[in-house]
Amino acid sequence: MKRDDQPMESGYQRLARRGVSRRDFLKLCTFTCAALGIDLSLAPQIAEAAEANLSKKPVIWMQGQGCTGCSESLLSSVDPGPEEIILDLLSVRYHPTLMAASGEQAVQSLEDCIAQGHYILVLEGSIPTADSRYCFVEGKPFIEQFKLAAEKAEAVIAVGSCACYGGIPRAGFTGAAGAQEVLEGVKVVNLPSCPVKPDRLVGLLLYYLSHNALPKLDGLNRPEAYYRYTLHDSCYRRWHYEKGEYLEDWNNPDTLDWCLYHKGCKGQDTYTNCANAWWNGGANFCGYAGSPCAGCSQPEYYDGFAPLFVNPKEVK
Ligand code: SF4
């Protein structure tokens, strides 16, 4: 345990203690610059500025109607682990799934952080609007607690499709809404996909901490750099699409890399950089793994795109 007379660790010292080298962190900042279209020569400056703010910025992470998949996605990511950046170096004061405190201690932590202000508010999961009884947090209707927390937040970030647009819960009866729909006068940054893509969250946070401003957003409040083009624009199956070669039979090994449009692919309507920046440290993404795009970064997901894996010609 740290004593009061011990010097404060720098952000880099804390990174090193967590097994993330300075080189790894610089690599992450360079990757962020590339993804956000920033001059790569600025990576060291971004690293310095972000590092200076990393250990200071409090974060409140609220979970509404969801499956906790976005937190899980974050915890499972690799090289260097965004979980070290976000969950250790930022001062995460409240996270219902991960915090050690519970009960009154957890409530106190949330209330203290809100009272002090100047924090980043992250929302995971959707917000029920049909009836406040569908989701409670620390004894209060979720929507009330979320609006209260948003009032004093420096920035509000919605992670995952549920938090951005209602996602899968929107297909149900709870009136599930995204963060921007329930907040007036507060700009929400949306990072849709199911689950959130961790490197986008890390990139957004590094940009915010180093610039004290948000990156350029598109008309749906998404960082333009991550959502500028459709999956179809950069899909490696595209040349088969152009030749009219569509996968019809999963059991035919000769056509496995053909276009998945007849299997319900929503890549033509879905803005995402998945085909360029793969998931799980570059291990894979849906299309390369053989799954048609489900359109999870679009507001239409899930209900508006269902049924998902069906030839559009067969959808009535
Ligand atoms: Fe476009 Fe989907 Fe076909 Fe790829 S698989 S070319 S994204 S329709």
Automatic annotation (TrEMBL):
<keyword id="KW-0411">Iron-sulfur</keyword>
<dbReference type="InterPro" id="IPR001821">
    <property type="entry name" value="NiFe_hydrogenase_ssu"/>
</dbReference>
<feature type="binding site">
    <location>
        <position position="67"/>
    </location>
    <ligand>
        <name>[4Fe-4S] cluster 1</name>
    </ligand>
</feature>
<feature type="binding site">
    <location>
        <position position="235"/>
    </location>
    <ligand>
        <name>[4Fe-4S] cluster 2</name>
    </ligand>
</feature>
<dbReference type="InterPro" id="IPR027394">
    <property type="entry name" value="Cytochrome-c3_hydrogenase_C"/>
</dbReference>
<feature type="binding site">
    <location>
        <position position="293"/>
    </location>
    <ligand>
        <name>[3Fe-4S] cluster</name>
    </ligand>
</feature>
<dbReference type="Pfam" id="PF14720">
    <property type="entry name" value="NiFe_hyd_SSU_C"/>
</dbReference>
<feature type="binding site">
    <location>
        <position position="194"/>
    </location>
    <ligand>
        <name>[4Fe-4S] cluster 1</name>
    </ligand>
</feature>
<protein>
    <submittedName>
        <fullName>Hydrogenase (NiFe) small subunit HydA</fullName>
        <ecNumber>1.12.99.6</ecNumber>
    </submittedName>
</protein>
<keyword id="KW-0479">Metal-binding</keyword>
<dbReference type="Pfam" id="PF01058">
    <property type="entry name" value="Oxidored_q6"/>
</dbReference>
<feature type="binding site">
    <location>
        <position position="162"/>
    </location>
    <ligand>
        <name>[4Fe-4S] cluster 1</name>
    </ligand>
</feature>
<dbReference type="InterPro" id="IPR019546">
    <property type="entry name" value="TAT_signal_bac_arc"/>
</dbReference>
<dbReference type="InterPro" id="IPR006311">
    <property type="entry name" value="TAT_signal"/>
</dbReference>
<dbReference type="GO" id="GO:0033748">
    <property type="term" value="F:hydrogenase (acceptor) activity"/>
</dbReference>
<dbReference type="GO" id="GO:0046872">
    <property type="term" value="F:metal ion binding"/>
</dbReference>
<dbReference type="GO" id="GO:0044569">
    <property type="term" value="C:[Ni-Fe] hydrogenase complex"/>
</dbReference>
<dbReference type="GO" id="GO:0008901">
    <property type="term" value="F:ferredoxin hydrogenase activity"/>
</dbReference>
<feature type="binding site">
    <location>
        <position position="232"/>
    </location>
    <ligand>
        <name>[4Fe-4S] cluster 2</name>
    </ligand>
</feature>
<feature type="binding site">
    <location>
        <position position="70"/>
    </location>
    <ligand>
        <name>[4Fe-4S] cluster 1</name>
    </ligand>
</feature>
<dbReference type="GO" id="GO:0016020">
    <property type="term" value="C:membrane"/>
</dbReference>
<feature type="binding site">
    <location>
        <position position="265"/>
    </location>
    <ligand>
        <name>[4Fe-4S] cluster 2</name>
    </ligand>
</feature>
<comment type="similarity">
    <text>Belongs to the [NiFe]/[NiFeSe] hydrogenase small subunit family.</text>
</comment>
<dbReference type="GO" id="GO:0030313">
    <property type="term" value="C:cell envelope"/>
</dbReference>
<feature type="domain" description="NADH:ubiquinone oxidoreductase-like 20kDa subunit">
    <location>
        <begin position="67"/>
        <end position="207"/>
    </location>
</feature>
<comment type="subunit">
    <text>Heterodimer of a large and a small subunit.</text>
</comment>
<keyword id="KW-0732">Signal</keyword>
<dbReference type="InterPro" id="IPR037148">
    <property type="entry name" value="NiFe-Hase_small_C_sf"/>
</dbReference>
<dbReference type="GO" id="GO:0009055">
    <property type="term" value="F:electron transfer activity"/>
</dbReference>
<feature type="domain" description="Cytochrome-c3 hydrogenase C-terminal">
    <location>
        <begin position="227"/>
        <end position="308"/>
    </location>
</feature>
<dbReference type="GO" id="GO:0051539">
    <property type="term" value="F:4 iron, 4 sulfur cluster binding"/>
</dbReference>
<dbReference type="GO" id="GO:0009061">
    <property type="term" value="P:anaerobic respiration"/>
</dbReference>
<feature type="binding site">
    <location>
        <position position="274"/>
    </location>
    <ligand>
        <name>[3Fe-4S] cluster</name>
    </ligand>
</feature>
<dbReference type="GO" id="GO:0051538">
    <property type="term" value="F:3 iron, 4 sulfur cluster binding"/>
</dbReference>
<feature type="binding site">
    <location>
        <position position="259"/>
    </location>
    <ligand>
        <name>[4Fe-4S] cluster 2</name>
    </ligand>
</feature>
<dbReference type="GO" id="GO:0009375">
    <property type="term" value="C:ferredoxin hydrogenase complex"/>
</dbReference>
<keyword id="KW-0004">4Fe-4S</keyword>
<keyword id="KW-0408">Iron</keyword>
<keyword id="KW-0560">Oxidoreductase</keyword>
<dbReference type="InterPro" id="IPR037024">
    <property type="entry name" value="NiFe_Hase_small_N_sf"/>
</dbReference>
<dbReference type="InterPro" id="IPR006137">
    <property type="entry name" value="NADH_UbQ_OxRdtase-like_20kDa"/>
</dbReference>
<feature type="binding site">
    <location>
        <position position="296"/>
    </location>
    <ligand>
        <name>[3Fe-4S] cluster</name>
    </ligand>
</feature>
